[in-house]
Amino acid sequence: MGMSYEDYSVVGYLDSLRNWMGRQVAANPNTKWRVAFFHKTMYTGSSSHQSDADGKVVRDSMAPLFDSLHISLALQGHDHVYEVMGPIKNKALVAGSVTGQTAVPVDARANLTGKLGGTFDVANGTLYFLDNSAGKKKYEPRSKLAMDTVEAGLGITNYFSFFTGRFGQTGEPTFSEVKVSTDSINISTYTVSDAGTATLFDAFKVVRGSSTSVKGAMGQRMLHAAFGPMGHPLIVAGNVAGIEMKIKVYSLNGSRIAEHSSKEASTLINLPSLSKGVYFVHVKVEGATTTFKVSKN
After folding, report:
1. How many CA atoms lie within 13 A of 245 on its CB side?
2. pTM for the full model?
3. DSSP-derived 3-state class of residue 294
4. Burial environment of residue 254 by CB neighbours within 10 A (0 to 12, 13 to 18, 19 or more)
5. For residue range 73-128, what is the model confidence (pLDDT) as tens digits?
6. Cα distance between residue 52 and residue 216, in whole Å
7. For residues 170 and 196, is the Cβ–Cβ distance under 8 A?
8. Phi/psi of residue 158, each to 5°?
9. Which residues contact 75 (CB under 8 A, 6 or more apart)?
């Protein structure tokens, strides 16, 4: 979803934008990756714009919507600095959502976190990414001390902890290559020298966990699936008895294999003979939906 916050101060504009985003998600309930891109940052660590009043207005208005719509990845602009932030939910870092990073020496400008790469699980939060700028105009990253000094006016506690990946500035033009598959989003960012030589600056992966909490009027439950005897039946568990759960099973190419509804706590779905591979299970309970994958080995 592409959007603009430039008219944030126009009465009713952000309300209209929120309504539009909600309609797009409702119209595409089976989409695994929900990606938003926009110019004005919602979260940033640049010394030029972190304390901007308009950024706080946009964040306070739109961040709760990103949480409720389960936006996976937010591609930001405006601040000419490299930032990997989150996953974030409720203006807080989602614990345990980052793995597989490489530790390097901290650099006061080029890498304030001393982190490279990693895998970011966005099952329970949004990853916010900004890939610097393709030109020579650059902004400087704020240190933790500088952020701590101003965070009272930002409405966020321990802002520096949000920078879970590489965070910094080299002064060179940058560009990012984004590869999207059913399993992950892989982002590689390169710096470009004056001679036109591209050098890898950072690379990370975005995934969604195979189990997802679904919240709604029915409360919270954990949904999971497994292949049963002979690899044919699919057992889906985690429902509350008496509440209808609608289930659809899809192959990787999007073909619907089975559809079923049940009010039982655990549901056994009889599937046709399936080859080894990955399948997607779409579950809807009381208007809340989630999609996760299950593998047949």
Report:
1. 28
2. 0.69
3. strand
4. exposed
5. 999 887 889 999 989 998 888 988 899 888 888 988 889 899 999 999 998 899 99
6. 35
7. no
8. 55, 50
9. 35, 36, 37, 38, 129, 130
